[in-house]
Structures are given as structure tokens and as C-alpha cells.
Amino acid sequence: xxxxxxxxxxxxxxxxxxxxxxxxxxxxxxxxxxxxxxxxxxxxxxxxxxxxxxxxxxxxxxxxxxxxxxxxxxxxxxxxxxxxxxxxxxxxxxxxxxxxxxxxxxxxxxxxxxxxxxxxxxxxxxxxxxxxxxxxxxxxxxxxxxxxxxxxxxxxxxxxxxxxxxxxxxxxxxxxxxxxxxxxxxxxxxxxxxxxxxxxxxxxxxxxxxxxxxxxxxxxxxxxxxxxxxxxxxxxxxxxxxxxxxxxxxxxxxxxxx
Amino acid sequence: xxxxxxxxxxxxxxxxxxxxxxxxxxxxxxxxxxxxxxxxxxxxxxxxxxxxxxxxxxxxxxxxxxxxxxxxxxxxxxxxxxxxxxxxxxxxxxxxxxxxxxxxxx
Lengths: 258, 106
Fold this sequence. Notes:
heterodimer, A: mainly alpha, 3-stranded mixed sheet, two-stranded antiparallel ribbon, 11 helices, B: mainly beta, 5-stranded mixed sheet, 3-stranded antiparallel sheet, 8 strands, 52% strand, elongated
């Protein structure tokens, strides 16, 4: 009797330690579906969604002349609703000059440096978040297509390796929560599947818009590991893997999350 | 770049109860937080919100440090005449913003 129990327990422990399995396509869920009706309503109504405040600022910045070149984004890209439609759904994307993937924030700053001859905007600054939110909002509803470029494959593989790698004092990898336990709760909050469908997004906890890199750094700090610096290649690879993992899901920018 | 988002129905019938929604961009710094070096972050909040319809005050709210950033204020009123809603937010450090929206009642 006791022997049988021990075997059963061992079986459970082994099952618990099974390697992370990717979430089946049909089971994928946006963080939106884990939210309360109130928070969903906040995201759905553009006059209640605080992320729209950044989108409005971004729209103004899009038309403002900047840098030594005295050019606005609109001077080259014209009407964002046409030129930027679906663009964010492909990011992070491969940059030939840098020979590595860049995310949307980095793309905007590269554009500022080379075409506007302006200084890059700091990560998480209101202006960079506003421009990113404005550009990404032009893709709202479009299916995520990140990772379709074959040049990105080695970087996606690196991102996936980082996603499954255990690290920090808690010795946890991203996959331990977001692949294996996404249907459970942690300290009362839904764990969710980590599909970055709505960035930059308004997090009620932050009382502000924030980037995916901010979210990743918060998660890495949460497992008591040393967070990578903003703009670090590792963070971009992780962004790239997560976006490619969410391929086919609609962009929600600017999303609202608790 | 303070900005407001206002949602007022464009038209209504006389006697209709309409919902007015306002969202104002503001950090709502409580004044209770400290920097890493121990200095108090000065309070910077919106203290008052007012809505006037054709010059008559129809709604007022006082705001306090416990209210979250980017205050979303929504209320109901009864549509009587066509006219203009004027919104005003006043706060610390000289903060003052206005916005307006028109409605046609017929």
C-alpha cells in the first residue's frame, strides 16, 4: 500500500518536472481574455483607454519637425494610417546594416538618427512610447507576422533558449510559468501565456504606458535575476521569440492590462 | 502635452439621460513617495474637475492623492437643450486644462 503510494508520488513529481511544452496553437489566448469585464471595457473604449493619450501625443510628434534635418516622420512616411498599417505586426524585424533584429522603439530611434539627424529618445521616455504606440496602433487588428523573415531564425532560437533557461535566485525560466502554468494564478493574478499582443500597453499597476522590454525586465527582476539593460540584444531576441510565438494573433495596441 | 479625451453623444432627444466620459492625462503624483536619496517627491495632482453646460455648472468633483494617474471621470446628465459642455481641470503647480464638446438636442 505504502509502496504503491510512493510510486504514485514519484509519478506525479516526474510529471511535474516534464520539460516545457509549447502551447498548442488552438489553446493560445491573449492576456485580454484573462482580464475582468471592467478592464476589458477600458481597453475596448477609445475614450476610456488611457493608452490613447499616448497615441494622441504620438500623432502630434509624427508631424513635428525634429533634428538637424528639420524633418518630421510625416515628411517621408506621409499619412501613418496608410504607410504604417501592418508595420508593427512584423516587429522585431531584421536590420541589414546592424545584422541583427531591432524592435519598433529601436527602429524609430534609428530613423531619428539617420534621417532626422536627431538624438535618440531614451527608452521609456514619454515621446518614444508615444511614437511607438502611435505607429503600432496603425496595425491594430492585424495578425502578428513577426519571424516570417528566414534571416531571423537564429535569433528566434536564441530567444527561445532564453525563454526556457532557468535563471536567478528563484531558478525559474519564463516557460516554467508561461508554458507550464499559464492557466493558474500567482498571488491572485492570472499568470497568462505571455503573448505580447498589445505593446506598448497601459498597465494599471504602472499607471502609465510601458514597453515590452519594461515588462520583461520586471519579470526577470521578479525571478531575482539581473535584468538586461534596455536595448540589450538578449531582450530584443526574447521580444522576437515571444512575437513569433504569437504569430497570427491580432495586434491590440494600445492594450490595457492589470 | 497634456491632453483630454472627451466622449459626449453628438445628438440626443429632449429628456434623454446621457453619459459623459472624460479622461485627462496627468501623473497624479501623491506627494507621499520618496526618491532613492530620501527626498519627498512633491505632490502634483489634479484637485478639481468642473463641467459647465451653457455656462451653468452641472458637475464638480474634488480629487485627492489616492486617485490613480490619468483620472477617468464619468457621469450622467439629462439632455435639455442644444449647447456646449465645457470641462475644466485644475491642479497643483499651476495645472489648468480645458476642453469642450457640443451636443444637438432635437
